[in-house]
Amino acid sequence: MIEVRGTYFDGISSEAHEATLHCVGELLTIRGAFGPLIHAVPLSRCDLDPPVGKTSRSIRFPGGAVFETADCDSLILIERSAGKNRMMRIVHSLELRWKTVAVSLAGIVLFVWLFHTYAIPILAKKIAFALPPQVTEEVSSQTMRALDYHLLKPSELTAEKTAGIRKDFSALLDDVDRAHFIYRLEFRRSPVMGPNAFALPSGTVVMTDELVNLSENEAEIRGILLHEIAHVKERHALRSVVQNAGIFLVIAALAGDLSGISSAAASLPTIVAHAGYSRTFEREADRFAALYFIRRGWSVKPMQDILGRMAKNVPRIPGEAVLSTHLATEERIRELGALAETNR
Ligand SMILES: [Zn+2]
């Protein structure tokens, strides 16, 4: 038996009577101070107000009588025994536990954000470094073919000019990395890209005629070459592909299925040729090049100069955010200066 104390209204006068409700099985009885007020009415013929917050609740009897109580817990027991208002009870308990619900939701959002921000880049790095050379070669040659077809034309630089740059490139590689990639330097003309350089995951670095013509000394070109070598060494292009493709590709790759990587690599031409790297990767490549300069006692000014000139000479593509390119360049120039300052 469930016993509930409350107030009884007979539905005729507005007078309130202190009363006790008893629930035995499916039957409700209400007793006042001088005896029974309502005899054994089946619960199925009564209406229970749905719970709203922590206010008192009512049971309405046939004929208009009402029993009100603040003892919501006991009413829940009665409902439970009768299976009434189940949905509303769930809503009610959620209302009472809204803080728990809010905290759980915030926890889920935080977890997804942390996973995306920290775990995916770490896993993407592992995958990019574990890829077999055949995959790297394959996606790189596909990318080069696509760029040659869409954006690049044969170089018109003199052999003398390119020979000097190739010699510098080779000397830099002797210092920083020979062992892990088959590095190659290619020259192309590209009115669409303008002054630019990019690197393919296999180790091929491409420099446009426009960039060579824009440079004013060898140090500027060396800074660019070191920056691109860093992108290769750190596998920034493949890491970007995997990171951008997201969680499902990461899980598949970790399980040994590399087919997703090959199809996701369709985004490689856009990433390498349109500066699609994250700020973190650009900063890492700048830092690598700047530290090489600083260790040799060279000024980083040529690196800053060529960056500034490149940003001014970006071909205007309708709809492209030129302003954001400029802001990013200003930030990179500032960071190069700060690096030189702290490593003096
Ligand atoms: Zn870069």
Structure description:
- It is a single chain.
- With 344 residues, the protein is α+β, with helices and mostly antiparallel strands.
- It folds into two domains: 2-96, Pleckstrin-homology domain (PH domain)/Phosphotyrosine-binding domain (PTB) (PH-domain like), CATH 2.30.29.30; 110-342, no CATH class.
- It has helices at residues 72-82, 86-96, 98-130, 133-150, 159-176, 209-214, 218-233, 236-245, 247-254, 259-264, 268-273, 279-295, 301-312, 322-342; strands at residues 2-9, 17-24, 27-32, 35-42, 47-48, 57-60, 66-69, 153-154, 184-189, 197-199, 204-208.
- A hairpin with an 8-residue loop joins strand 5 (47-48) and strand 6 (57-60).
- Helix 3 (98-130) packs antiparallel against helix 8 (236-245), helix 3 (98-130) packs across helix 9 and helix 7 packs across helix 13 (301-312).
- The radius of gyration is 36 Å and the shape is rod-shaped.
- The mean pLDDT is 88.
- Zinc ion (ZN) binds at residues 227, 231, 277, 282, 285.
Whole-angstrom Rg: 36 Å
So how many helices?
14
Which spans have pLDDT < 50 for at least 5 consecutive residues? none
Number of separate structural domains = 2
Strand fraction equals 15-25%
**What ligand molecules are bound, each kind once?**
zinc ion
Q: What global shape is seen?
A: rod-shaped
Percentage of residues assigned to helices: 55-70%
| Total number of strands | 11
Strands of the widest sheet, in order across it, are: 4-3-2-1-7-6-5
Entry keywords:
344 residues; alpha+beta; PH-domain like; 2 domains; seven-stranded antiparallel sheet; four-stranded mixed sheet; 11 strands; rod-shaped; binds zinc ion
